[in-house]
Each structure stands twice: as structure tokens, then as C-alpha cells.
């Protein structure tokens, strides 16, 4: 079987600006990057697309790939490390809480609107995997974000159960009393995910997808395919034909209350291939560009 080509970011045609901003609720400092097309008009106000990646993914991974490719097409784009992740503040590291993730997204919008070359009335968001549910659920009531894209949204964190709630609460209490947090290992050796996360040319990072096990306490109260029933923004859902997340993606599309919504299934694609395989990334970008031109 031929190896599929990994997409490359057009770094020579895109400007990169590191930024920091605060979560407006927790006041934690978050680290981000703003990308802009290197060739642009002086004083031009650019539409902005904020892009988030999988759970515990750092900003330099798949989200920056999509961000730089979109910046090369004329958009300003922004990525950031969520609270507890990467270069952003917060402990325990890699803690997962959908409410915090939503607050991070809204805080990113607030910061983005302060940038002098951004058209504050033309802001969209793209969420990949975990962000594909955290984003629409977190901004559904925020009028500042005009359109949303979910790529292979991971909808099933609410069915992850490795311990009883009583045991999870005890783990949390032990951490608060000084113990190291027990870790939930989401990526198994030999799995499709391992091919991405353990490959230094793809998703390998210092921080792996190993969150505190008691993150499940927040997940068990989070049901994205139901929350999406209150989502009314223009909505594009892209999934892979062979992605294990395809049923959830189709349900996100089906349940969304949006007047304008689209579902696209990419032939042959697995879940993790949608992160960085050139064939699928380029198909996704074509769909995203068309959607943004029509809805942003």
C-alpha cells in the first residue's frame, strides 16, 4: 500500500505572530499564534478564522497546518493552546473540561477583536476532533462568531468510563491533597491514533493525549449531539468515510438547528488522516473556502 503524503504548511508565504491573551473567566494566560498572508494590502481588514485541534493537542499541530494553508488563501487565522495545555497556564496539565474549553474559545474571540487588521464582523471558527464539539457548543450563544466548521468531531467523550464517579472524585481529591494526578491514556499502541501521535513527522509532541482520569467527571455531563440542537449558526460538518467518528459527525449535522448547514463525507478517509494527509486536507480546504465565502 502506498504511503499517503503528509500536507506541508506554506511557511514562506505566511507571517507568524505569537500572542498571549487571558481567559476572561479564569484569568489564566493562554498562548496563541496569529497567521496572516504575507502579501496583503496595507490597512486591509482581514476576515479571521480561529482554529482548534484535538483534545490536548498543542497549537503547532494540525490546527496550525490548516491555519497556515488558509492564511495563504487570504485569511487571517489564529490558533491557541487551551487552558492546561501546551504553553498556556493551568494545572493539572491536560485537564479536560468542556466549560473551560468554551470559555477559552469566547476569550479568543474577545482578543481577536482587538487586533487592528481584523474585521471584527467576519470571524469564523474551525474545530478538529475534540474542538469539533467544544467549539460549536461553546459559541452557540455568541453572536460574534458567524460560522463554524467541525472536522471529524469527536462526540463520544461522554461514554468514556474507566472508573466509577466515586472513584473519580477520590482521584480528584487525592490530587488536590498533593498527589500526582492519575492519567487516562487515550491512544493505544498500534492504533490508528498511535500512527499519528507517535510519529515525529506528524503529531508527536512533548505533551501526549494523557489527561487526568477524573476529567471524565466533566465529560459525563457533556452531550454535544444534544447541545447542538440549540446551535443556529451557519454550520459545515466534514467527516471521513471510514472515520470511527462518522456516526457522531452525522448526528451533529442532523441535530443542528442551523438554517444553513452542510455535511460532506470524504471518500476513503480515516479519522486521523483528516488531520494532515494532503489528499484529504486539500479536499477539506476546498469545502471550507467555499463555505466561508458564502457565509462569512
Give a topology summary.
Layout: E1 14-22, E2 29-37, E3 46-52, H1 62-71, E4 76-80, H2 98-112, E5 118-128, H3 131-139, E6 147-151, H4 165-176, E7 183-185, H5 192-197, E8 210-212, H6 216-219, H7 224-227, E9 234-240, H8 246-255, E10 261-266, H9 273-276, H10 278-295
Parallel strand pairs: 3-4, 3-5, 5-6, 6-9, 9-10
Antiparallel strand pairs: 1-2, 2-4, 7-8
Describe the protein's architecture and organization.
With 296 residues, the protein is an alpha/beta fold. The chain is 31% helix and 22% strand. The chain contains ten helices and ten strands. The strands form two sheets. Strands 1-2-4-3-5-6-9-10 form an eight-stranded mixed sheet, sandwiched between helices. It has a two-stranded antiparallel sheet with strand order 7-8. α2 (98-112) crosses α3 (131-139). The longest helix has 18 residues, at 278-295. It is globular, with a radius of gyration of 18 Å. The model has no long low-confidence stretch (mean pLDDT 95).
Amino acid at each position: 500500500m502506498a504511503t499517503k503524503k503528509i500536507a506541508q504548511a506554506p511557511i514562506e508565504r505566511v507571517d507568524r505572530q505569537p500572542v498571549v491573551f487571558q481567559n476572561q473567566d479564569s484569568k489564566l494566560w493562554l498562548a496563541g499564534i496569529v497567521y496572516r498572508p504575507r502579501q496583503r494590502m496595507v490597512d486591509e481588514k482581514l476576515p479571521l478564522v480561529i482554529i482548534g485541534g484535538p483534545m490536548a493537542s498543542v497549537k503547532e499541530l494540525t490546527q496550525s497546518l490548516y491555519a497556515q494553508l488558509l492564511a495563504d488563501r487570504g485569511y487571517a487565522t489564529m490558533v491557541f493552546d487551551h487552558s492546561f495545555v501546551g504553553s498556556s497556564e493551568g494545572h493539572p496539565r491536560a485537564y479536560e473540561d468542556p466549560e473551560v474549553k468554551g470559555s477559552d474559545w469566547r476569550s479568543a474571540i474577545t482578543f481577536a477583536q482587538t487586533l487592528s487588521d481584523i474585521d471584527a464582523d467576519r470571524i469564523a471558527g474551525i474545530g478538529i476532533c475534540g474542538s469539533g464539539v467544544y467549539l460549536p457548543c461553546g459559541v452557540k450563544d455568541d453572536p460574534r462568531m458567524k460560522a463554524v466548521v467541525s472536522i471529524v468531531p469527536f462526540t463520544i467523550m461522554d461514554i468514556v468510563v474507566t472508573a466509577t464517579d466515586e472513584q473519580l472524585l477520590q482521584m480528584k481529591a487525592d490530587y488536590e491533597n498533593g498527589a500526582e494526578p492519575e492519567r487516562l491514556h487515550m491512544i493505544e499502541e498500534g492504533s490508528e491514533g498511535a500512527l499519528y501521535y507517535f510519529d515525529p513527522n506528524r503529531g508527536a509532541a512533548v505533551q501526549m493525549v494523557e489527561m487526568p482520569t477524573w476529567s471524565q467527571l466533566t465529560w459525563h455531563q457533556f452531550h454535544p449531539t444534544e447541545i447542538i440542537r440549540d446551535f443556529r449558526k451557519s454550520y459545515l460538518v466534514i467527516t471521513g468515510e471510514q472515520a470511527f467518528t462518522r456516526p457522531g459527525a452525522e448526528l451533529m449535522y442532523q441535530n443542528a438547528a442551523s438554517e444553513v448547514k452542510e455535511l460532506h463525507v470524504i471518500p476513503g478517509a480515516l479519522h486521523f488522516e483528516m488531520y494532515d494527509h494532503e489528499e484529504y486536507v486539500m479536499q477539506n480546504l476546498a469545502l471550507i473556502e467555499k463555505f466561508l465565502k458564502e457565509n462569512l
